[in-house]
Protein 1
Amino acid sequence: MKGKTHAEMGIVTFLSVYNVLPGKFNYIGLLIVAFSSILPDVDHPKSIINKYILPFRNKTSKIMVYSSLGIGLLWYDYLYTNAPIIKAIGISFIIIAVSSHRNGLTHSLMGMILFSFIIGYLGNMYNVHYLVYYFMIGYGMHLLCDMVTNRGVPLFYPFKNKKFKLPLTYNTNSKIGCVIEDFLMIFGLLFTIYKLPIIFCK
Ligand SMILES: [Zn+2]
């Protein structure tokens, strides 16, 4: 599934459920949902996030950049901070460096827990306790949406490599796949436009 379709699906879910969330509707929440909806594909050198991070969008550059960031942070933590949050972020970078697309931790429940822990911790540090809920909506929707595609996701990685998918799936590279994603985009945009007055008039 394309990055923009993921972002759109995350936002549609957020706009459907924000009323029952602790932080209700707010723009930080909206940004967090959009970000976490595309975050799992950081394991692909050509994904949206990597467009802004990698100097060259290939596998070698992805491994080099993320492993240097990870090792740098762990080294900094060892010398100066000794803080669990810095360790967790450093380890995450190394995991991103070694994960191949859709086969590793970023597309698993373990990955979702690890990243949620980091966001939850940062949220508590800055007194925005509800951030983690928004984060989990975006991230969870990404995994669910990828389960509708024929490649599936390794939900229980690193314990099990089996790829999970829903009974009905489509091939993202096929013609019908493109039509489905275009349809989802149009539906998402219409739904967002329909929701706008409700958000602004409350
Ligand atoms: Zn994905």
Note: Residues 3-44+101-200 form one domain.
Protein 2
Amino acid sequence: MGPSPTRREKAPPLPDGRLNMNPPDLTFWQLIAEDLRTHNRDILAQGFWILFWHRFGNWRMSVRFKPARMVLTAIYRTMYRVGQWTCGIKLPYTVQVGRRVKLEHFGGMILVPRCIGNDVTVRQNTTMGIASERDLNARPVLEDEVDIGAGAVLLGNCVIGRGSVIGANAVVTKSVEPYSVMVGVPAICIRTRHPAGSEQADHCAEPEPEAPLP
Ligand SMILES: CC(C)(COP(=O)(O)OP(=O)(O)OC[C@H]1O[C@@H](n2cnc3c(N)ncnc32)[C@H](O)[C@@H]1OP(=O)(O)O)[C@@H](O)C(=O)NCCC(=O)NCCS
């Protein structure tokens, strides 16, 4: 993770939505097939369909023939709304979403961070977005392998470090070190996950008390 932004720092501009921001290493249909596998091949999973229209919304931006793109845009905008009404999940196509992202369950999900990395799981009733109207660009960044518990709220200019777990109903407004397990309001780190083979220091551990002087 690079240097973490502070809440006072002005966030950089958001993507303007003119580019196809789907992961570049797969075709549209390969991506859809991977999303379906990620959702346990459940063709009726709400998360799969929300991602389908999100990928479609991005893919249409690579269509150069303008009249065709206008038709695709009308389809995208309609299905984006239908997705919100029927699944209770809001995920605009301007949010960059990586591969194998799983939207587990559905309902009450307002997912408007800056970007979501690869292998991220997001559960129901989660909110990601601005902390206040003072900075409309200040949105969370979710690095790879992050796991977001039900009811979690991630706000403002923060980076959720790789492999972190955000507990159910936690509220996060500051950057989180990689592999942290965060719970509570405001969220605190209760422990560090150690990925297999890693010798990472436990940054959540209390510092050892110094030995008393003789
Ligand atoms: C955060 C989480 C991953 C921690 O799991 P864990 O590492 O096994 O931690 P433990 O269950 O051993 O709990 C450690 C401590 O944190 C507390 N804690 C755990 N989750 C918490 C939460 N979401 N909010 C507040 N405190 C929490 C426990 O009560 C315990 O406190 P104690 O030491 O005073 O007894 C897990 O509790 C969680 O919230 N997962 C979200 C999963 C989810 O949303 N499931 C919904 C499925 S539909």
Note: The domain at 28-192 is CATH 2.160.10.10 (UDP N-Acetylglucosamine Acyltransferase; domain 1).
